[in-house]
Amino acid sequence: MEFLVKSARLETLKTSTLVVAVGEGRKLGEAAKAVDAAADGAITTLLKRGDLAGKVGQTLLLHSLPNLKADRVLLVGSGKERELSDRQFRKLIAAVNGVLKGLGGSDAALALGELQVKGRDAYGKARLMVETLADGTYLFDRFKSQKADAPVLKKITLLGEKADVAELERGSAHAQAIAKGMAFTRDLGNLPPNLCHPSYLAEEAKALAKEHKHLKVDVLDEKKLKELGAGAFLAVAQGSEQPPRMIVLHYQGGKKDDKPFVLVGKGITFDTGGISIKPAAGMDEMKYDMCGAASVLGTFRALLELQLPINVIGLLACAENMPSGRATRPGDIVTTMSGQTVEILNTDAEGRLVLCDTLTYAERFKPQAVIDIATLTGACIVALGSNTSGLMGNDDALVKQILKAGEYADDRAWQLPLFDEYQEQLDSPFADIANIGGPKAGTITAGCFLSRFAKKFHWAHLDIAGTAWVSGGKEKGATGRPVPLLTQYLLDRSQ
Fold first, then answer.
1. pLDDT of residue 431
2. What are the Cα distances from residue 405, in Å, to 85, 259, 322, 401, 414?
3. CA 447/CA 265 separation, integer angstroms
4. Cα of 485 vs its chain's centroid, Å
5. Tell me, what's the pLDDT at 473?
6. How far apart are CA 31 and CA 74, in angstroms?
7. CA distances from 117 to 4, 29, 476 (A)
8. Nearby residues of 363 by Cβ (< 8 Å), 6 or more positions away
9. What is the pLDDT of residue 438?
10. What are the strands of the beta sheet with 369-374, ordered from one edge?
């Protein structure tokens, strides 16, 4: 999809479909008034028939209005509030997109700049609009023998005042970069686990580096992980035929001596639970247990498009968790890269084991901040559902920056506590720490576990178990979250 920005008189604009807003009570916006006046009151006449109430997201398609160069005019309801919420605005744009995709026109022009969205200027509205439109075109049919027809709609123009054109273009460019990152993340997440294993993710990272001179990739194999003493990481992988990989991405956009920001992604390419095996029902969705790593790769894809003037390191902790005669047993004790010992009480609490060694590895980069992203706990879905990611951290300023980025990106997180009392649930009689803390506060005790390996830097943990994919049925699939949040966090740091 091509996105353009321009300022133009609506009545003279040649386009397949011109989109304008109508509020509840037949209230025409400025754009709709201009079109109505040019068309000799045709819109007002049609609205009086009661075909469109103007509720948010309602649509009415009009053909061949007089005195216009546009083939069609699409009216979209904008509701009765003076300011829309992000959710209402997205609903409105998604409704427009749904109609446009079903039409025969190859282009459309959206005259929606006059709509007020709470807390958003021209740039912010363009960001939200283009992200919604671009993400709405996503399709994954790689393994279908019958491919979907190529979309007819090829170009969308955002119309605005001349004074807003530069900001609209900036918002559109940023949104397109984020949408590409989300699509990359979704593609990786939706791949089957027989193809998408740790070595495959390493090849994908290398391919990305070949396309972009600012990116360098190192891959640490089993031998290197053993040399580093990554006993927890290797314990997860030892039951699988697929070898583990720690994938290191170096983005150099800032000065050589600038300390980097580090993104750490959990990349369990399939999670059976190991010896603590999961129930069969729904286990196919455990291919999504690598969505933390996929979201880091997607964020790097966006970062490379944006060419931000900062340094960023990506660390992807990739392994497959399988049961076999070589697999880790409940009761095993392993030594982590940090030297701390862990009693593995449940082999299905494996994400924290690959992440703890990867967090220790992050120390060598002397980071400004470290954020790990993981589909870590089912308890997070119980606590927050599928709308909001869980957030914990050891630095209040970093946590607030992430919350703010999520709010602006409309990809929100919610902070959970890391009180010392929860740490006591991880006590082990035989090792320094147990890998689970019992049935209570599972998301928090998982965060507590990771915090013990993040004491040398500012650190935050995002639990995306509820937000990384949509579960079950025909709608099942990766969402691309939290690429918008992470990209916004890096945008904020670069300014």
1. 98
2. 17, 20, 36, 6, 12
3. 14
4. 7
5. 82
6. 12
7. 21, 14, 30
8. 456, 457
9. 95
10. 215-220, 245-252, 311-321, 261-271, 369-374, 459-463, 389-393, 413-415
* The two structure tokens encoding residue 316: 């992807």
Answer for the pair 341, 433: CB distance below 8 angstroms, yes or no: yes
Structure tokens at 388: 């909001």
In angstroms, rounded to a whole number, what is the distance separating the alpha carbons of residues 195 and 242?
Answer: 11
Residue 218 CA, distance from chain mean position: 24
The answer to whether residue 26 scores a pLDDT higher than 90 is no
Q: Which pLDDT tens digit goes with each residue over 423-442?
A: 999 999 999 999 999 999 99
- pTM of this structure: 0.96
Query: Which 3 state secondary structure label does DSSP give 122?
Result: helix
For the cut 90, the answer to whether the pLDDT of residue 475 exceeds it is no
Q: What tokens does 80 get?
A: 């009765």
Distance separating alpha carbons of residues 86 and 410, to the nearest angstrom = 7
3-state secondary structure of 232: helix
What type of residue sits at position 98?
G
Query: What are 325-348's pLDDT values in tens digits?
Result: 999 999 999 999 999 999 999 999
Reading the block at residue 112, the tokens are 């929606």
Average model confidence (pLDDT) across the chain = 97
| DSSP 8-state assignment for residue 403 | H
CA distances (Å), origin 460, targets 359, 384, 408, 448, 451: 11, 18, 18, 11, 9
Contact partners, residue 385, CB within 8 Å, separation at least 6:
466
Would you call the peptide bond into 330 cis, given omega within 30 degrees of 0 as the criterion?
no
Structure tokens at 421: 């009392």
Burial of 246 (0-12, 13-18, 19+ CB in 10 A): buried
For residues 469 and 477, is the Cβ–Cβ distance under 8 A? yes
Amino acid at residue number 298: G
Residue 171: is its pLDDT beyond 90?
yes
Q: CB-side exposure of 161: number of CA atoms within 13 Å?
A: 9
Catalytic (active-site) positions = 278, 352
Q: For the chain, what percent of residues have pLDDT higher than 90?
A: 95
Computed from CA positions of residues 95, 98, 103, 109, in that sequence, does the dihedral angle turn out positive or negative? positive
At residue 453, the pLDDT reads: 98
Cβ neighbours around 353 below 10 Å, total: 29
Across the range 474-483, mean pLDDT stands at 95
Residues with Cβ within 8 Å of 102's Cβ and at least 6 positions away in sequence, in order, are: none
Query: How far is CA 264 from each of CA 28, 56, 367, rounded to the nearest angstrom?
Result: 49, 39, 12
Sequence letter at residue 260: P
Question: Strand order of the sheet with strand 333-335?
Answer: 333-335, 341-343, 433-434
